[in-house]
Specification:
Order of helices and strands: EHEHEEHEEHEHEHEHEEHEHH
Number of strands: 12
Distance between the termini: 35 Å
Strand content: 15-25%
CATH superfamily of the largest domain: Leucine Dehydrogenase, chain A, domain 1
Radius of gyration: 19 Å
CATH architecture of the largest domain: 3-Layer(aba) Sandwich
Shape: globular
Strand order of the largest sheet: 2-1-3-5-6-4
Bound molecules: NADP nicotinamide-adenine-dinucleotide phosphate
CATH class of the largest domain: Alpha Beta
Number of domains: 2
Number of helices: 10
CATH topology of the largest domain: Rossmann fold
Structural class: alpha/beta
Protein backbone atom coordinates (compact mmCIF):
# COMPACT_ATOMS: atom_id res chain seq x y z
CA UNK A 1 0.00 0.00 0.00
CA UNK A 2 1.27 3.43 -0.90
CA UNK A 3 0.34 4.86 2.53
CA UNK A 4 2.67 2.45 4.35
CA UNK A 5 -0.22 0.52 5.83
CA UNK A 6 0.15 -3.25 6.00
CA UNK A 7 -2.75 -5.32 4.75
CA UNK A 8 -4.30 -8.51 6.06
CA UNK A 9 -7.74 -9.94 5.46
CA UNK A 10 -10.21 -12.77 5.24
CA UNK A 11 -10.20 -14.89 2.08
CA UNK A 12 -13.43 -16.79 1.35
CA UNK A 13 -16.42 -16.85 -0.99
CA UNK A 14 -18.97 -15.61 -0.50
CA UNK A 15 -18.25 -13.74 2.73
CA UNK A 16 -21.23 -13.02 4.95
CA UNK A 17 -21.22 -11.06 8.17
CA UNK A 18 -17.80 -11.99 9.56
CA UNK A 19 -16.82 -10.78 13.03
CA UNK A 20 -13.09 -11.06 12.20
CA UNK A 21 -12.62 -7.51 10.81
CA UNK A 22 -14.04 -6.01 14.02
CA UNK A 23 -11.86 -7.87 16.50
CA UNK A 24 -8.72 -8.06 14.34
CA UNK A 25 -8.81 -4.32 13.58
CA UNK A 26 -9.37 -3.61 17.28
CA UNK A 27 -6.27 -5.70 18.09
CA UNK A 28 -4.13 -4.00 15.41
CA UNK A 29 -5.22 -0.56 16.63
CA UNK A 30 -4.68 -1.45 20.31
CA UNK A 31 -1.12 -2.56 19.51
CA UNK A 32 -0.41 0.53 17.39
CA UNK A 33 0.21 -1.57 14.27
CA UNK A 34 -0.45 0.37 11.04
CA UNK A 35 -2.50 -2.24 9.19
CA UNK A 36 -5.99 -2.76 7.83
CA UNK A 37 -7.95 -6.00 8.14
CA UNK A 38 -10.24 -6.34 5.12
CA UNK A 39 -12.79 -8.75 3.67
CA UNK A 40 -11.55 -10.37 0.47
CA UNK A 41 -14.46 -12.23 -1.15
CA UNK A 42 -12.67 -14.23 -3.85
CA UNK A 43 -14.19 -16.69 -6.34
CA UNK A 44 -12.22 -19.93 -6.88
CA UNK A 45 -10.61 -18.84 -10.16
CA UNK A 46 -9.14 -15.73 -8.50
CA UNK A 47 -7.63 -17.50 -5.46
CA UNK A 48 -4.13 -18.16 -6.91
CA UNK A 49 -3.65 -14.46 -7.80
CA UNK A 50 -4.92 -13.31 -4.41
CA UNK A 51 -2.59 -15.70 -2.60
CA UNK A 52 0.34 -14.65 -4.83
CA UNK A 53 -0.33 -11.01 -3.89
CA UNK A 54 0.37 -11.90 -0.26
CA UNK A 55 4.03 -12.37 -1.16
CA UNK A 56 4.36 -8.56 -1.46
CA UNK A 57 6.08 -6.78 1.47
CA UNK A 58 2.93 -4.83 2.39
CA UNK A 59 1.04 -8.03 3.30
CA UNK A 60 0.95 -9.81 6.65
CA UNK A 61 -1.07 -12.72 5.24
CA UNK A 62 -4.71 -13.68 5.66
CA UNK A 63 -7.32 -15.82 7.31
CA UNK A 64 -9.01 -18.37 5.08
CA UNK A 65 -12.58 -19.61 5.30
CA UNK A 66 -14.95 -21.76 3.23
CA UNK A 67 -14.63 -22.80 0.47
CA UNK A 68 -10.86 -22.23 0.16
CA UNK A 69 -9.40 -23.85 3.30
CA UNK A 70 -8.11 -26.93 1.46
CA UNK A 71 -7.26 -25.26 -1.84
CA UNK A 72 -4.80 -22.73 -0.37
CA UNK A 73 -2.55 -25.46 1.03
CA UNK A 74 -1.28 -26.21 -2.48
CA UNK A 75 -0.46 -22.56 -3.16
CA UNK A 76 2.10 -21.93 -0.39
CA UNK A 77 5.74 -22.82 0.25
CA UNK A 78 5.42 -24.55 3.61
CA UNK A 79 2.80 -25.74 6.08
CA UNK A 80 2.64 -26.08 9.85
CA UNK A 81 2.10 -29.55 11.36
CA UNK A 82 -1.54 -28.67 12.17
CA UNK A 83 -2.22 -28.26 8.43
CA UNK A 84 -0.87 -31.73 7.72
CA UNK A 85 -3.03 -33.18 10.49
CA UNK A 86 -6.21 -31.45 9.32
CA UNK A 87 -5.66 -31.26 5.56
CA UNK A 88 -6.85 -27.64 5.68
CA UNK A 89 -5.53 -24.17 6.55
CA UNK A 90 -7.27 -21.15 8.03
CA UNK A 91 -4.25 -18.82 8.14
CA UNK A 92 -1.57 -17.81 5.63
CA UNK A 93 1.48 -15.98 6.90
CA UNK A 94 3.99 -13.99 4.83
CA UNK A 95 7.51 -14.88 5.90
CA UNK A 96 10.78 -13.10 5.14
CA UNK A 97 11.62 -13.05 1.44
CA UNK A 98 7.98 -13.37 0.42
CA UNK A 99 7.62 -17.04 1.30
CA UNK A 100 4.15 -18.12 2.42
CA UNK A 101 3.36 -20.54 5.25
CA UNK A 102 -0.03 -22.15 5.89
CA UNK A 103 -1.23 -22.80 9.42
CA UNK A 104 -4.44 -23.92 11.11
CA UNK A 105 -5.36 -22.02 14.25
CA UNK A 106 -8.91 -23.49 14.46
CA UNK A 107 -7.34 -26.50 16.14
CA UNK A 108 -5.65 -24.28 18.74
CA UNK A 109 -8.83 -22.22 19.25
CA UNK A 110 -11.05 -25.22 19.94
CA UNK A 111 -8.45 -27.06 22.06
CA UNK A 112 -7.89 -23.98 24.21
CA UNK A 113 -11.60 -23.62 24.96
CA UNK A 114 -11.80 -27.30 25.93
CA UNK A 115 -8.87 -26.86 28.30
CA UNK A 116 -10.39 -23.71 29.81
CA UNK A 117 -13.69 -25.51 30.39
CA UNK A 118 -11.76 -28.15 32.34
CA UNK A 119 -13.57 -31.04 30.67
CA UNK A 120 -12.28 -34.51 31.54
CA UNK A 121 -12.29 -36.12 28.10
CA UNK A 122 -9.66 -38.84 28.44
CA UNK A 123 -11.39 -42.18 27.70
CA UNK A 124 -14.72 -40.37 27.18
CA UNK A 125 -17.25 -40.60 24.35
CA UNK A 126 -17.93 -37.44 22.34
CA UNK A 127 -20.67 -36.92 19.75
CA UNK A 128 -19.81 -34.48 16.98
CA UNK A 129 -22.65 -33.22 14.77
CA UNK A 130 -21.34 -32.13 11.37
CA UNK A 131 -18.55 -33.17 9.03
CA UNK A 132 -17.48 -29.91 7.39
CA UNK A 133 -14.40 -27.77 7.88
CA UNK A 134 -15.11 -26.93 11.53
CA UNK A 135 -15.66 -30.61 12.39
CA UNK A 136 -12.14 -31.37 11.14
CA UNK A 137 -10.53 -29.24 13.84
CA UNK A 138 -12.98 -30.50 16.47
CA UNK A 139 -12.31 -34.16 15.72
CA UNK A 140 -8.52 -33.81 15.71
CA UNK A 141 -8.59 -31.78 18.94
CA UNK A 142 -10.80 -34.37 20.63
CA UNK A 143 -8.60 -37.23 19.46
CA UNK A 144 -5.58 -35.36 20.82
CA UNK A 145 -7.45 -34.80 24.11
CA UNK A 146 -7.60 -38.60 24.46
CA UNK A 147 -11.28 -39.41 23.86
CA UNK A 148 -11.90 -43.13 23.49
CA UNK A 149 -14.85 -42.91 21.10
CA UNK A 150 -16.09 -40.35 18.61
CA UNK A 151 -19.48 -40.43 16.92
CA UNK A 152 -19.53 -38.21 13.82
CA UNK A 153 -23.07 -37.55 12.66
CA UNK A 154 -23.81 -35.73 9.42
CA UNK A 155 -26.81 -34.99 7.21
CA UNK A 156 -24.86 -36.68 4.41
CA UNK A 157 -23.34 -39.56 6.42
CA UNK A 158 -20.98 -40.55 3.60
CA UNK A 159 -19.21 -37.21 4.12
CA UNK A 160 -18.73 -38.13 7.79
CA UNK A 161 -17.28 -41.50 6.78
CA UNK A 162 -14.90 -39.83 4.32
CA UNK A 163 -13.77 -37.35 6.97
CA UNK A 164 -13.13 -40.07 9.56
CA UNK A 165 -10.98 -41.94 7.03
CA UNK A 166 -9.15 -38.80 5.84
CA UNK A 167 -8.22 -37.87 9.40
CA UNK A 168 -6.99 -41.42 10.18
CA UNK A 169 -9.58 -41.81 12.94
CA UNK A 170 -11.23 -45.08 11.88
CA UNK A 171 -9.93 -46.75 15.07
CA UNK A 172 -11.98 -44.55 17.39
CA UNK A 173 -14.62 -42.83 15.26
CA UNK A 174 -17.95 -44.04 13.90
CA UNK A 175 -19.85 -42.20 11.16
CA UNK A 176 -23.62 -41.91 11.53
CA UNK A 177 -26.58 -40.09 9.99
CA UNK A 178 -27.64 -36.84 11.68
CA UNK A 179 -30.88 -38.36 12.95
CA UNK A 180 -32.28 -38.73 16.46
CA UNK A 181 -32.88 -42.46 16.00
CA UNK A 182 -29.28 -43.07 14.94
CA UNK A 183 -27.86 -41.01 17.81
CA UNK A 184 -30.13 -42.29 20.57
CA UNK A 185 -27.90 -45.30 21.46
CA UNK A 186 -24.76 -43.16 21.78
CA UNK A 187 -26.02 -40.11 23.63
CA UNK A 188 -26.55 -41.50 27.15
CA UNK A 189 -22.83 -42.27 27.51
CA UNK A 190 -21.55 -39.06 25.93
CA UNK A 191 -19.46 -36.60 27.97
CA UNK A 192 -19.53 -33.95 25.23
CA UNK A 193 -21.85 -33.09 22.35
CA UNK A 194 -20.51 -30.62 19.78
CA UNK A 195 -22.69 -28.94 17.18
CA UNK A 196 -20.37 -28.32 14.22
CA UNK A 197 -23.24 -28.02 11.73
CA UNK A 198 -24.64 -24.75 10.44
CA UNK A 199 -27.97 -25.62 12.12
CA UNK A 200 -28.91 -23.14 14.84
CA UNK A 201 -28.02 -19.86 13.21
CA UNK A 202 -31.66 -19.13 12.43
CA UNK A 203 -34.69 -19.31 14.67
CA UNK A 204 -35.07 -22.20 17.06
CA UNK A 205 -33.84 -25.00 14.80
CA UNK A 206 -31.73 -27.68 16.54
CA UNK A 207 -29.56 -30.41 14.98
CA UNK A 208 -30.98 -32.98 17.39
CA UNK A 209 -33.95 -33.27 19.76
CA UNK A 210 -32.85 -31.37 22.90
CA UNK A 211 -34.77 -33.91 25.01
CA UNK A 212 -32.02 -36.39 24.07
CA UNK A 213 -29.26 -34.36 25.78
CA UNK A 214 -27.93 -36.64 28.50
CA UNK A 215 -27.46 -35.67 32.15
CA UNK A 216 -23.88 -34.70 32.94
CA UNK A 217 -22.81 -33.96 29.35
CA UNK A 218 -21.30 -30.68 28.17
CA UNK A 219 -22.88 -29.12 25.08
CA UNK A 220 -20.69 -27.04 22.78
CA UNK A 221 -22.28 -25.18 19.87
CA UNK A 222 -19.78 -23.65 17.43
CA UNK A 223 -22.26 -20.96 16.39
CA UNK A 224 -21.77 -17.72 18.29
CA UNK A 225 -25.33 -17.19 19.41
CA UNK A 226 -27.39 -18.56 22.26
CA UNK A 227 -29.00 -21.28 20.17
CA UNK A 228 -32.06 -23.29 21.14
CA UNK A 229 -29.70 -26.23 21.73
CA UNK A 230 -27.61 -24.23 24.21
CA UNK A 231 -30.70 -22.82 25.91
CA UNK A 232 -32.05 -26.36 26.36
CA UNK A 233 -28.69 -27.50 27.76
CA UNK A 234 -28.64 -24.62 30.28
CA UNK A 235 -32.23 -25.33 31.28
CA UNK A 236 -31.10 -28.84 32.22
CA UNK A 237 -28.15 -27.56 34.20
CA UNK A 238 -25.58 -28.77 31.64
CA UNK A 239 -22.38 -26.92 30.81
CA UNK A 240 -23.18 -24.95 27.62
CA UNK A 241 -20.44 -23.37 25.51
CA UNK A 242 -20.86 -21.22 22.40
CA UNK A 243 -18.30 -20.68 19.64
CA UNK A 244 -17.30 -17.05 20.24
CA UNK A 245 -14.19 -17.80 22.28
CA UNK A 246 -13.03 -20.40 19.75
CA UNK A 247 -13.40 -17.78 17.03
CA UNK A 248 -11.46 -15.17 18.99
CA UNK A 249 -8.74 -17.60 20.07
CA UNK A 250 -8.11 -18.82 16.52
CA UNK A 251 -7.94 -15.17 15.43
CA UNK A 252 -5.61 -14.27 18.28
CA UNK A 253 -3.19 -17.01 17.29
CA UNK A 254 -3.35 -15.82 13.65
CA UNK A 255 -2.65 -12.25 14.82
CA UNK A 256 0.45 -13.47 16.67
CA UNK A 257 1.69 -15.37 13.62
CA UNK A 258 1.30 -12.28 11.40
CA UNK A 259 2.66 -9.64 13.74
CA UNK A 260 4.98 -11.45 16.17
CA UNK A 261 3.17 -9.57 18.96
CA UNK A 262 1.12 -10.94 21.87
CA UNK A 263 -2.57 -10.71 20.99
CA UNK A 264 -4.57 -8.32 23.21
CA UNK A 265 -7.21 -10.92 24.09
CA UNK A 266 -9.50 -8.76 26.27
CA UNK A 267 -9.65 -6.16 23.48
CA UNK A 268 -10.43 -8.83 20.89
CA UNK A 269 -13.13 -10.49 23.01
CA UNK A 270 -14.81 -7.18 23.78
CA UNK A 271 -14.75 -6.14 20.11
CA UNK A 272 -16.16 -9.51 19.01
CA UNK A 273 -18.95 -9.31 21.59
CA UNK A 274 -19.80 -5.73 20.56
CA UNK A 275 -19.84 -6.64 16.85
CA UNK A 276 -22.04 -9.65 17.55
CA UNK A 277 -24.47 -7.58 19.62
CA UNK A 278 -24.64 -4.96 16.84
CA UNK A 279 -25.28 -7.69 14.27
CA UNK A 280 -28.07 -9.21 16.36
CA UNK A 281 -29.71 -5.79 16.86
CA UNK A 282 -29.63 -5.25 13.08
CA UNK A 283 -31.14 -8.65 12.19
P1 LIG B 1 -19.08 -26.34 6.20
O1 LIG B 1 -17.73 -26.87 5.93
O2 LIG B 1 -19.87 -25.70 5.10
O3 LIG B 1 -19.96 -27.53 6.83
C1 LIG B 1 -21.32 -27.30 7.15
C2 LIG B 1 -21.83 -28.44 8.02
O4 LIG B 1 -23.18 -28.13 8.42
C3 LIG B 1 -21.89 -29.78 7.30
O5 LIG B 1 -21.71 -30.82 8.25
C4 LIG B 1 -23.32 -29.78 6.76
O6 LIG B 1 -23.83 -31.07 6.51
C5 LIG B 1 -24.05 -29.16 7.93
N1 LIG B 1 -25.32 -28.57 7.56
C6 LIG B 1 -25.52 -27.40 6.87
N2 LIG B 1 -26.84 -27.16 6.74
C7 LIG B 1 -27.48 -28.20 7.34
C8 LIG B 1 -28.85 -28.52 7.53
N3 LIG B 1 -29.83 -27.73 7.08
N4 LIG B 1 -29.16 -29.65 8.21
C9 LIG B 1 -28.17 -30.45 8.69
N5 LIG B 1 -26.85 -30.21 8.53
C10 LIG B 1 -26.52 -29.09 7.86
O7 LIG B 1 -19.05 -25.24 7.38
P2 LIG B 1 -18.07 -25.20 8.65
O8 LIG B 1 -16.97 -24.25 8.38
O9 LIG B 1 -17.76 -26.60 9.05
O10 LIG B 1 -19.02 -24.50 9.73
C11 LIG B 1 -19.98 -25.25 10.46
C12 LIG B 1 -20.50 -24.40 11.62
O11 LIG B 1 -19.43 -24.09 12.52
C13 LIG B 1 -21.08 -23.05 11.19
O12 LIG B 1 -22.17 -22.72 12.03
C14 LIG B 1 -19.94 -22.08 11.43
O13 LIG B 1 -20.39 -20.76 11.64
C15 LIG B 1 -19.33 -22.69 12.69
N6 LIG B 1 -17.91 -22.37 12.85
C16 LIG B 1 -17.50 -21.78 14.01
C17 LIG B 1 -16.17 -21.51 14.21
C18 LIG B 1 -15.73 -20.86 15.47
O14 LIG B 1 -14.57 -20.42 15.56
N7 LIG B 1 -16.58 -20.78 16.47
C19 LIG B 1 -15.21 -21.85 13.24
C20 LIG B 1 -15.66 -22.46 12.06
C21 LIG B 1 -17.01 -22.72 11.89
P3 LIG B 1 -23.68 -31.72 5.03
O15 LIG B 1 -22.24 -32.14 4.91
O16 LIG B 1 -24.61 -32.90 5.07
O17 LIG B 1 -24.08 -30.67 4.04
Amino acid sequence: MADGMKRVGLLGYPLGHSLSPAFQQAALDACGIAARYELWPTPPEAVPALVASLRQPDAFGCNVTIPHKERVVGLVDEAAPAVARLGAANTLVRLAGGRLRADNTDLYGFARTLAEAGLALRSATAVVLGAGGAARAVLVALAEAGVARLIVANRHPERAARLVAALGLTGIATAAPLADAALRPWLPGAALIVNATAVGWHGDETPLDPDLLPAGAAVYDLTYRSTALLRAARARGLLALDGLRMLVYQGARSFELWTGRAAPLPVMLAAAEAALAARERAS
